[in-house]
Every structure is written in structure tokens, then in C-alpha cells.
Specification:
144 residues, 3 helices, 7-stranded parallel sheet
């Protein structure tokens, strides 16, 4: 069954959520997982792709956008639609819970000040369906 991890950041803005997603993707890949980062639409995927080229600044993470030639075989794929072939770690940055989340071994939901109410709704959604939930309160995560 899919494990769902909620990462609660003390930060209040969406930029922190995006930076944390970059770090989380790096950790997941280092642990041997393939990662699919789900965004709202193609422009969001492009914006996140740009961020992943530059952050974290001390490392490079091979990645590609969904439907790009670079995505084939990349450990990290950034997309806005059903990835079909992925089943490792899903980092959900979209406004909705994707219908295909149950195909993944793990789902990461990142909550910052601006998204707390949405985080509560998602927690209830997963809990009511019996998914194992894990809660991580994080502060000073960028200095680690």
C-alpha cells in the first residue's frame, strides 16, 4: 500500500515548498528511487525544471520534463499529467491529489503556511481511505 508522508515546513511561502521538493527529490534518488514530481500544468513543470537546474547549488540532479526526450531514463521526471510508467516516489506539487497516486510506493505532500488548509484536507482524504500516514515537522531544513 502507498505510504504518504506529510512534510510540514515552518516556512510560509510556496518558494520554500519548491526548494524543499528539490532536496527531497535528491534524497529519494540517493536512496535508489525514481521520482515523479507532479505539477499543475506544463508551465509549472517548466518553472520547477528551471529551479532544479540551480537548486541545491552544490549538486546536479539529472531530470527531464514529461514528454521530453531527456525524461527517458532520468531519475527525476517533472510533469503535469499521468506519468504511466512511474511507480516509485511521487512528490505532489499540484493543487489536487492526482488520481494515479495509488500506483506509487510513496507520496510526498509538502505543507507550508499558504497551503495548510489544503494539507488538512489531503490528510483527511488519505486517512479516510486507510493509507499509512507519516508526519514530519521541519525547521531549518535548508541548513542540513
Amino acid at each position: 500500500m502507498t505510504r504518504v508522508d506529510f512534510y510540514i515546513l515552518e516556512d510560509v511561502d510556496l518558494n520554500a515548498m519548491m526548494r524543499f521538493a528539490c532536496r527531497l527529490a535528491c534524497k529519494a534518488v540517493d536512496a535508489g528511487n525514481r521520482v515523479y514530481i507532479h505539477t499543475n500544468h506544463e508551465q509549472s513543470a517548466t518553472d520547477f525544471d528551471d529551479l532544479l537546474w540551480a537548486y541545491p547549488d552544490q549538486r546536479f540532479m539529472p531530470h527531464g520534463r514529461q514528454n521530453d526526450a531527456f525524461a527517458a531514463g532520468a531519475p527525476v521526471v517533472i510533469g503535469w499529467d499521468d506519468p504511466h510508467e512511474h511507480d516509485g516516489v511521487l512528490i505532489n506539487l499540484s493543487d489536487e491529489i492526482p488520481t494515479f497516486f495509488g500506483r506509487f510506493d510513496r507520496v510526498a505532500e509538502i505543507v507550508v503556511g499558504e497551503t495548510k488548509s489544503r494539507g488538512r484536507e489531503r490528510y483527511q482524504f488519505y486517512r479516510d481511505r486507510g493509507y499509512p500516514l507519516f508526519h514530519h515537522d521541519l525547521d531549518d531544513w535548508e541548513v542540513q
